[in-house]
Design goal:
By secondary structure, the protein is an all-alpha fold. The protein is built from five helices and no strands. It has helices spanning 2-12, 15-24, 28-44, 48-62, 68-96. Helix 2 (15-24) packs antiparallel against helix 5 (68-96), helix 3 (28-44) runs antiparallel to helix 4 and helix 4 (48-62) packs antiparallel against helix 5. The radius of gyration is 14 Å and the shape is elongated.
Length: 98
Amino acid sequence: MERFLRLFLESNGRLPDELRDLACNPDLERLRRLGHALYGSAANLAAVPTATLARRLEYAAAAGEPESPVLAGELADQLERLFATIHQYLDQLQENAP
């Protein structure tokens, strides 16, 4: 699990900034693809709030909904909270390692 969490962080570390950029300069196809990819990654972690928001972004962007940029900003914030939780968990694992 630790390896999977580290891979998730490494693979997605820049996404909050990218999502914020896309919130200001929307590219609906890019938002749809990011939402789809993040849904799968977050669902694999059982990170339900992040997965739910990612799915909402995917569907909204696919439909051309004007709320898509707002959802992108919300997902960026949600990802940062998830990253902080994962980092805290990994730090605790290291502290408790023999």
